[in-house]
Here is the input.
Amino acid sequence: MPELDFYFDFSSPYGYLASERVDALAERCGLSVYWRPFLIGTAFKQTGQSPLTEQPIRGDYFRHDMDRCARLQGTPFKLPEKFPYAAVAPCRAFYWINSFDPKLAQKFAHDVYRGYFADGLDMSNPETVIATATRHGIDAGRIRHAMTDPKWKQHLREVNEQAIERGAFGSPFFFYKNEPFFGNDRMDQLELWIKSQA
Here is the structure.
């Protein structure tokens, strides 16, 4: 099946909104989606950007826009008190789970996103991430170990480097046959592009 790479940051509200739509898009287009969480803070160091809500003038607009987009999409959303955060723990946990069960990793990713943006859970706390994983029958001790394992620390660094090398500078970011699309609001265009290439 054709492949779609879906890069996102667990602290990104637009990444969250895209995560609620990407599976349906993939099904309509007959695609396999590869979920690739990364840390956009790494990209910000290259681009000189800062979190949207911290930018003068633009910050107020984006707070309003995030709420509006979520309402229009029908997705539960509330900007968390602790926003943004460095999503190191859920990223490492995701890649460990993904190494043996990619579908389970996607379910975990949905729960992390919904826990943070719908329920206000502190996903910067590794124990919250562990509790999220154990709901899927994952052993707490094993995932706790994975989040501190040098193997998964290095893997996340490599994913961050690869994302930047490919040109991903924000979240969500998509690549279809190396054609880049940035933003939840580009997903309709992305779908049209995919279908035009069939």
User: Anything to note?
Assistant: The longest strand covers residues 3-8.
